[in-house]
Design brief:
With 318 residues, this protein is of the alpha/beta class. It folds into two domains: 6-151, NAD(P)-binding Rossmann-like Domain (Rossmann fold, 3-Layer(aba) Sandwich); 154-317, L-2-Hydroxyisocaproate Dehydrogenase, Chain A, domain 2, CATH 3.90.110.10. It is built from ten helices and 14 strands. The strands form four sheets. The protein has a six-stranded parallel beta sheet, sandwiched between helices. A three-stranded antiparallel beta sheet has the order 7-10-11, covered by helices on one side.
């Protein structure tokens, strides 16, 4: 099997290291690069992952590297086709994602500038929080075309919603289709009209109040896990989502995924990074795909766009 392409993951914390391992285990990349600002952390994790190769049966090599705030060490990401930014602080119980904005903006801005310098042709997938704002900041700080920068949120929120529906109805997750759009936060927009189980509308299978309960649990899905972990935030489902997006880029698959993408006219919304469905391929976002929404869902999406627009305008000064 021919392996090709280089994907770099910046930040070797829980999210970054799990993403790197998932990417390596796909066994499609020539190389996975993992970096961190803590001396030796990424190198140690890379060594450990490589030692699992003969057991798990993958040949992709993981290369670790230490970077510093002045940009030293970033040569290791040269030639990357895809870069996933996971650097940044996670939430603690009681914090909203927005509470991380100042500290993570400094980290993400620095990382983005170094990506522009060392991997100027890469597609960038942002996962650091607050997601919509960090995605906008990355586009700004890299200077990359908007379609080459996207954020991971909708894949995760949708997967959470799907899991809750499957558990409620005691059906396989594979029979459930759900969708969430909007922001990765309070203005997340679950789209019940696009939710089905074995092709049947969710609304025919569950009472409206129960669907609303699952929607609320989905919207608070990250906080529920933060509350249980107490020292950090989720990373298994988030890394699955980010790794799938990187794979779609590398394979130029054109898969339609819910992602945080630059919206320019779709749904009558312009000039904002927002959770929408989009075709993902080797140049990033090939096309934002508009889906049929009910009037209520559309009004929620418009409200989400305006809420994140204000915050995204603020990131310029961070
Ligand atoms: N460059 C590279 N790595 C950095 C930098 C930097 N400038 N600053 C911090 N890091 C690294 C930390 O050293 C740490 O290893 O980022 C890593 C963050 O890891 P964790 O604390 O385990 O956090 P994690 O759960 O991985 O979450 C990372 O994803 O979901 C979001 O809100 C979450 O913003 C957070 C990010």
């Amino acid at each position: 099997m021919a392996r090709s392409g280089v994907v770099a993951v910046i930040g070797a914390g829980f999210y970054g290291s799990t993403t790197a391992l998932r990417l390596a285990e796909y066994n499609i990349f020539e190389k996975v690069v993992l970096t961190d600002i803590l001396e030796g952390k990424a190198e140690g994790l890379a060594l450990d992952m490589n030692q699992s190769r003969s057991i798990e049966g993958f040949e992709t090599r993981v290369v670790g590297g230490t970077t510093s705030a002045d940009g030293a060490g970033y040569e290791v990401i040269a030639g990357s086709d895809v870069v996933v930014i996971t650097a940044g602080l996670p939430r603690k119980p009681g914090m909203s994602r927005m509470d991380l904005i100042e500290v993570n903006a400094k980290i993400v801005r620095g990382v983005a500038e170094n990506i522009a310098k060392h991997a100027p042709n890469a597609v960038v997938i942002v996962v650091s929080n607050p997601l919509d704002e960090m995605t906008a900041l990355t586009a700004l700080a890299t200077g990359f075309p908007k379609h080459k920068v996207m954020g991971q949120a909708g894949m995760l929120d949708t997967a959470r919603f799907t899991n809750f529906v499957a558990e409620e109805l005691k059906v396989p997750v594979a029979s459930v289709q759900t969708l969430t759009l909007g922001s990765h936060g309070d203005t997340m927009v679950p789209v019940p009209s696009r939710c089905t189980v074995d092709g049947k509308p969710l609304a025919d299978l569950l009472p409206a109040a129960k669907i609303e309960e699952l929607v609320t649990r989905t919207r608070n899905g990250g906080a529920e896990i933060v509350g249980l972990l107490k020292t950090g935030s989720a990373y298994y489902a988030p890394s699955s989502a980010a790794a799938r997006m990187a794979k779609a880029v590398m394979e130029d698959s054109g898969a339609v995924m819910p992602v945080c993408a630059w919206v320019d006219g779709e749904y009558g919304i312009s000039g904002v990074y927002l959770g929408v469905e989009a075709k993902v391929g080797k140049n990033g976002i090939k096309e934002v795909v508009e889906t049929q929404l009910t009037d209520f869902e559309k009004s929620e999406l418009l409200a989400a766009a305006e809420a994140v627009r204000t915050k995204q305008a603020d990131v310029k000064s961070l």
